[in-house]
Amino acid sequence: MQQVDERIDAWIRGVATPGMAYVHFDGTKVIIERYAGLADIPTQRPVDARTSFHGFSVTKTLTSLVVVQLAQAGRVDLDAPVRAYLPTMPYAGDISVRHLLTHTGGLPNPLPLEWVHSPADDGSFDSDGFFAAVFSKHAKVRSAPGERFAYSNLGYVLLGQLIERVTGSSFKDVIRHAVLRPAGITERELGFTWPADNMHATGYLRAPSFSPSCCRSSSTPDATWACARAVGAASSPSY
Q: Do 219 and 101 fall within a single domain?
């Protein structure tokens, strides 16, 4: 416990991060719960159990979970070419759904993606148009499918589009229906909407801005358990 506290304090003092929440748990209980630093520098608002954070790429777990659920339901063949589901996919070659799931499709990973926009603008944001331009600009693969591991955000963008194409529903609605609700997860614990209580942590970067992930999560132990439930306990819904 002391080593954890010392490490967290060192991170904060070294300006590695303005603030953080740390919750460690095993299969039965929360072992360590710590909050430190600031959620917002100008207002000096501290990080506490009410603070929520962007999910970032941890939410790729939810995307992959839904794809596997669709495979179990016979709606998706993991070894089929992605083009079977997305005929206009910009990348040539035999890139399979499994390749995208495992980051072995050879797709590029341009950073920053720069698709950050305010929650108020989300309804009018043209996600399809934005990513069509990104794919057009970065249309060259880095390696042959299955040749090597190469992390790619664009691969998971395609998986999100595949989910929408196969289900006929929006990505957000599918995640809510297939993962969050079956696991008993509330929108406050893990969700797409901005928290009304203004307790979301402000993001700070030393580098140019890049995209937060699709979801936002609270830092409470209950929310931490919720994230675990989403992956470990979500049953296959009826698609």
A: yes
pLDDT tens-digit readout, 124-167: 878 889 889 999 999 999 999 999 999 999 999 999 999 999 99
- The encoded tokens of residue 110 equal 């341009």
Q: Which of 101, 10, 32, 2 is nearest to 61 (CA)?
A: 101
The tokens of 106 are what?
């050879």
Residue found under tokens 């992605």: 82
| Residue 160 backbone zone (phi > 0: left; psi -120 to 50: alpha; other: beta) | alpha
Residue 146's region, left for phi above 0, alpha for psi from -120 to 50, else beta, is left
8 A C-beta contact, residue 86 and residue 165:
yes
Look up tokens 């148009």; give the residue: 129
Instruction: Give the whole-angstrom CA distance, residue 52 versus residue 204.
Output: 14
| DSSP calls for 40-96 | ETTTTEEP-TT-EEE-GGGGHHHHHHHHHHHHHTTS--TTSBGGGT-TT-S--S--B
Q: What is the CATH number of the domain that holds 177?
A: 3.40.710.10
202 in a structural domain? no
pTM for the model = 0.80
pLDDT 10s digits, 81-116: 999 999 999 998 899 999 999 999 999 999 877 766
122 contact partners, CB below 8 Å, separation of at least 6: none
